[in-house]
Write a structure and sequence with these properties.
With about 375 residues, the protein is α+β, with helices and mostly antiparallel strands. The chain has two domains: about 120 residues, Phosphorylase Kinase, domain 1 (2-Layer Sandwich); about 240 residues, Aminoglycoside 3'-phosphotransferase, Chain: A, domain 2, CATH 3.90.1200. The protein is built from twelve helices and ten strands. A five-stranded antiparallel sheet has the order 1-2-3-5-4, covered by helices on one side. Helix 4 packs parallel to helix 10 and helix 10 packs antiparallel against helix 11. The radius of gyration is 20 Å and the shape is globular. The chain starts with a helix and ends with a helix.
């Protein structure tokens, strides 16, 4: 692989020479490498193999990333933000022009500049990090509010359409292709008991009562890059940046960041939502987003956390029942079921604290 990475890297317009490569990050879908080059500048590059089983239209995905990052750059310049090369991802073109390379095996690759002296957090215990993370997601949406969402490609069609995911789930349970439904009767019932409420919410999205905007759609807190001083720099992992709702961005950061346990924690006693972290995150997010959100979006902000946690529970469980066809990076046979159970526990914790969550948002709206 190392030699291949060298060759793939050489197709991009960098003006530098490959030195070494090492795996980077903990994504479930793509494969990511940090490429070091000869000399001190730049500090390195991020080379990413895009999973084109998941992302069917890599040219469209790449076009989105370039448009979005260029738009963000323009906004940052207008705002007079300093250290611009640390505040937005920068993608590089290939010698032939496109910003992606397709290798001989049919794998697609993107290259971006590595932002040095940066850290990511998979979970957050410090409220000031939560505030900064929320602010970064709000600012991302604010800066992209002038870009027409319909001008972007849908890199995964219907990605956060819980209704369609439920239709598919019902089919999988009925067909039970891997004879795994007997492993999870309670979890299946937990999905179905919340189905009506989730479908009712999707009605607001389909009717336009909740508007479509340019959103990130994968705002796990590990996708916010921080400087070593604790300030957020920018959002990374822009594969799913496309039209969506702000509620899933808000919700996914809470799902991932406000849970002191792991996303797949086998120890369910560790899993739950920390209301203090929720509050700090909402404060940071609304410091940027309050000015442009509609009353209906604000009314449903806290619900966004339940929605996306339910969706993730549904996705992991459906994939376990289907035979790990989507989340293929598993460590053991029941890993996707274990992930599903942790998400269910987190969802239950949010449900218990829902009136407090709504109270926090109401206070911040005043
Ligand atoms: C996947 O690959 P990664 O970790 O960035 C998934 C997200 C899920 C997440 C759960 C394209 O993201 O939607 O929330 O796993 N990305 C895609 O950890 O499906
Ligand atoms: Mg991702």
């Amino acid at each position: 692989m190392r030699n291949d990475l060298d060759i793939i890297f050489s197709h991009f317009e960098t003006g530098t020479a490959f030195l070494s490569a090492e795996p980077l990050g903990s994504g479930h879908i793509n494969d990511t490498f940090l490429i070091r080059v000869m000399g001190d500048h730049p500090a390195g590059y991020v080379l990413q193999r895009i999973n084109h089983f998941v992302f069917r239209d890599v040219p469209g995905l790449t076009e989105n990333k370039v448009r979005i990052t260029q738009h963000l750059l323009g906004q940052l310049e207008k705002e007079g933000v300093e250290e611009l090369d640390r505040r937005v991802m920068q993608f590089l073109p290939t010698h032939k022009g496109p910003y992606f390379y397709c290798d001989k095996q049919g794998n697609y690759w993107n290259l971006s500049l590595y932002i040095p002296d940066s850290v990511v957090y998979e979970t957050v215990s410090n409220p000031s990090i939560a505030f900064e993370g929320g602010k970064a997601i709000g600012a991302f949406q604010r800066r992209l509010s002038g870009l027409n969402p319909e001008s972007l490609h849908e890199t995964i069609p219907h990605f956060h359409d819980v209704g369609l995911r439920l239709d598919k789930f019902r089919k999988i349970v009925e067909e039970d292709p891997c004879h795994r439904a007997a492993d999870a009767p309670d979890e299946i019932a937990d999905i179905l008991s919340r189905e009506a409420e989730m479908r009712a919410f999707m009605g607001l999205v389909h009717s336009g009562a909740i508007p479509r905007r340019v959103t990130h759609n994968d705002t796990k807190i590990g996708n916010v890059l921080f400087g070593r001083n604790g300030h957020a720099l920018c959002l990374i992992d822009l594969d799913t940046a496309m039209p969506g709702t702000v509620l899933s961005d808000f919700g996914d950061a809470i799902r991932s960041g406000a849970n002191p346990g792991r996303e797949d924690d086998p120890d369910l006693d560790k899993v739950g939502m920390d209301l203090g972290i929720f509050t700090a995150f909402a404060e940071g997010y609304l410091s940027e987003a309050l000015a442009f959100l509609t009353p209906t979006e604000l009314d449903h902000l806290a619900f966004g956390a339940r929605l996306i946690t339910y969706e993730q529970f549904l996705r992991f469980l459906a994939d376990y029942l289907e035979g790990d066809v989507y989340y293929q990076k598993i460590q053991h046979e029941k890993h996707n079921l274990q992930r599903a159970r942790a998400q269910l526990k987190l969802l239950q914790s949010m449900e218990k604290q829902y009136s407090e969550m709504c109270g926090v948002v109401s206070r911040l709206r005043e």
